[in-house]
Amino acid sequence: MPQTFNGFAGEKNSMMDNKIIDQLLKKYFQGETNLEEEKQLRQYFTDIKQIDAAFKSYAPWFEYIKENQHVVSSKTITMPKHDVVTIHQKKHSYRWVIAMAAAVTLLLIATFMLQQQPPKSNEVAIDWSKYELQDDAEASAQIVAALKLLAEKLNGGTSKVATELDKISKISTILNQE
Amino acid sequence: MSFRLRDEMTRTEFEHSIASIKDKLFRFALKMMNNIEEAEDVLQEVLLKLWLQRKQLSEVKNLEAWSMHMTKNHAIDKLRCRKYEEGIDVLMALPTKDANPEDDLQHRDMMAYIENIMQQLPEKQRMVIHLRDIEAYSYEEIAQILDLPLNQVKVNLFRARTFLRTQLGSSMK
Lengths: 178, 173
Description:
The complex is a heterodimer of chains A (178) and B (173). Chain A is an all-alpha fold and 178 residues long. Chain A has helices at residues 14-29, 35-47, 59-69, 84-116, 136-177. In chain A, 11% of the residues are buried. Mean pLDDT of chain A is 81; it is low at 85-89. Chain B contains ten helices and no strands. The interface between A and B is large, with 31 and 44 residues.
């Protein structure tokens, strides 16, 4: 059964108490004491007037613990009369509602504008087959007419080139004469 | 740990119920901030948060540990914002002794020496040793407050006490 320190009973017990305290201190600095044992150490160092010389160096630490346990806040703290958080949260939720309303309005406007535009997908494709020529003679006449037009245009180009060449030759003649 | 919050609790009831933990929160804030005024600000912020969140917090099992956890976070936030180094202000909060001035001065010097040792400890070690030795919390509660694994709590406590022992030993030489 482990020995415990129960306060000083008399001088004859001091040897035994010192042994217990020594063991407790060793455990304490190894970080192996439990809360009850730490309480015993505090009692020894703060309640006893004649601390054994072997332990005197530790006394200020236990004195420091005792004093610190009595440190209190002198400030009077009162809670606000109004629940600030509730107001704060309400503010936030109000903002959130406005943001949501604005988003929905924009969405509605966009939808409305899209609906106003004529649907491009409904355009009917041109059926070119009905313009196709069925009669061979008419097709032949059209081809001849087209070729004739082409020949006229080509001839126009040739005559224009001939005219320009004629001008160049006249200029070269004048230049040679000089 | 009897500190509880209820949905329907009045302001007076709340102020009455926090009385049991108010000083613990203040001491923890003071240990971290090392400044009375700033520690009181942290306390005010934490208590206000507890009051405003009382409905959500009514289901929290260990509200005292939760409050200490909040205090730690608030103090850390405040420390990050701090642009200057504070002097040792913690000693100002210590109760005065009815001894003669000479003894009192000697005593205060010793307390200043210990406080200086505490301030030399890394933040985690300082928080762990404070919560264990001054507030007498269990390892599990300290782990919860500091959001640390249990073995880390023990390691930090061991290192803090080892450093303390070395410093106390050297002070007697």
